[in-house]
Write a structure and sequence with these properties.
Oligomer: single chain
Number of helices: 13
Bound molecules: (2S)-amino(hydroxy)ethanoic acid, manganese (II) ion
CATH superfamily of the largest domain: Zn peptidases
Helix content: 25-40%
Number of domains: 2
Radius of gyration: 22 Å
Largest sheet: 9 strands, mixed
Strand content: 15-25%
Distance between the termini: 23 Å
Length: 399
């Protein structure tokens, strides 16, 4: 049961033909197929699987208890995402645990493989939803108020998936079992290409967040409305895209992206009445992201005023900068023999858990340096090296 063969088993689940890549979102049919696949594979490896109150899957080797060594990732994707973001961590974890179980090794601590729900926030808009609920960094009633583009709430979707959404919320019992937390993930940049190493240990996660800009204008006829007579929300929406790029290009260590824009009603011959636009902003350092967003918002508010439109800005998700546990980083380096340490601009569940338990990350080289797109890739040899490295780490941490 190698990670490479496991990735092959799920390669056709959730392919998104129109967009390319994969679209697998919390509690949708494709993700349900992946959950069932994971449970079957974990049970076949002799692990005991349970679903926690927030829809996260926990596959245990040994009786769950304090001081457990937990490795995780996720099976959901961004819309049109790559094959490795999430599944690489899950398949390497199954491979690593299976190879340890097949050896003479017997852990002194329980080991668990965890699959977190909605890491990408691709359906309900908040990333790391499962780990935020687990740790209480997102209140259950805030989660219940979320809606997907069709107006479905996480509670309804969870109930349809056979879960009891009334249980959503901080899970101190589950948290109390976690002693150490290590996530393996495909690298989502070019770091390992330039360093010529197949794996690395994670050092930091950049502060990041998501803001929704809602522009209100006046819907009208595209042909019968003079240009001087318009309050077109697409104009300030366009100014947001330009302001994001202009501001981030000027601020050291800043990245700002608009990848999602939803006009209403969305007709070709219709001046939009409103437009929702989402800004993803991330700035190196501490407490530097919100000021950048504020600067972008100021430019946008004046553009909205000139066009006679209203604008509201809502912070939908925010994660402060994370520095992974120094002791654990040292231990991972000791086990792996001095592989590079890499910062990342990508958020991860390990970054949410880091505020609660000693957490760390391992990265596997991505030779394209592209992620959140179909070109995301990892060579078989590097995948195998990643699974071996994770097995070495789990052996060391659970001895
Ligand atoms: O968006 C991110 O940083 C991650 O891929 N969820
Ligand atoms: Mn991702
Ligand atoms: Mn990921």
């Amino acid at each position: 049961m190698s990670a490479v063969s496991l990735l092959g088993e799920i390669a056709d689940i959730g392919r998104d033909r129109p967009r390319g890549g994969y679209s697998r979102h919390a509690f949708d049919g494709r993700e349900a197929e992946l959950r069932a696949w994971f449970v079957e594979r974990a049970v076949r490896s002799g692990l005991e699987v349970e679903t926690d109150r927030n829809g996260n899957l926990w596959a245990w080797w040994g009786r769950p208890g304090p001081g457990s060594v937990v490795t995780d990732s996720h099976l959901d994707s961004v819309p049109g995402g790559g094959a490795f973001d999430g599944p690489l961590g899950v398949t390497c974890a199954l491979d690593a645990v299976k190879s340890l179980r097949d050896s003479e090794f017997r852990p002194g601590r329980p080991i668990a493989v965890v699959v977190f729900m909605e890491e990408e926030g691709g359906r309900f808009g908040v990333p790391c939803l499962g780990s935020r609920l687990l740790t209480g960094s997102l209140a259950a009633d805030r989660a219940r108020a979320l809606r997907d583009p069709e107006g479905v709430s996480p509670a309804e979707a969870a109930a349809r998936a056979g879960l009891n959404p009334d249980q959503f919320g901080r899970d101190d019992i589950a948290l109390s079992k976690v002693g150490t937390f290590v996530e393996l993930h495909v690298e989502q940049g070019r770091g390992l290409i330039d360093l010529g190493s197949p794996i690395a240990v994670g050092s930091t996660v950049t502060e990041h967040g998501r803001w929704r800009f809602s522009f209100i204008g006046q819907g009208n006829h595209a042909g019968a409305t003079p240009m001087s007579d318009r309050r077109d929300p697409m104009l300030p929406a366009a100014s947001l895209i330009a302001a994001a790029r202009r501001t981030a290009a000027r601020v050291d260590g800043a990245r700002a992206t608009v990848g999602r824009l939803v006009p209403r009603p969305g007709g070709t011959n219709v001046i939009a009445s409103s437009v929702d636009v989402w800004l993803d902003a991330r700035v190196a350092g501490h407490n530097r992201t919100r000021p950048v967003v504020e600067e972008i918002a100021a430019a946008v508010r004046s553009a909205a005023g000139e066009e006679g439109c209203e604008v509201t800005v809502t912070e939908e998700a925010y994660t402060g900068a994370v520095a992974f546990d120094a002791g654990l980083r040292g231990q991972l380096n000791g086990v792996l023999g001095g592989v590079p340490e890499l910062p990342t601009g990508a958020g991860h569940d390990a970054g949410i858990l880091a505020a609660h338990v000693p957490s760390g990350m391992l990265y596997v080289r991505n030779p394209t340096g592209i992620s959140h797109a179909p070109e995301e890739f990892a060579e078989d040899a590097d995948v195998e090296r990643g699974a071996e490295a994770l097995a070495e780490v789990l052996r060391d941490l659970s001895t």
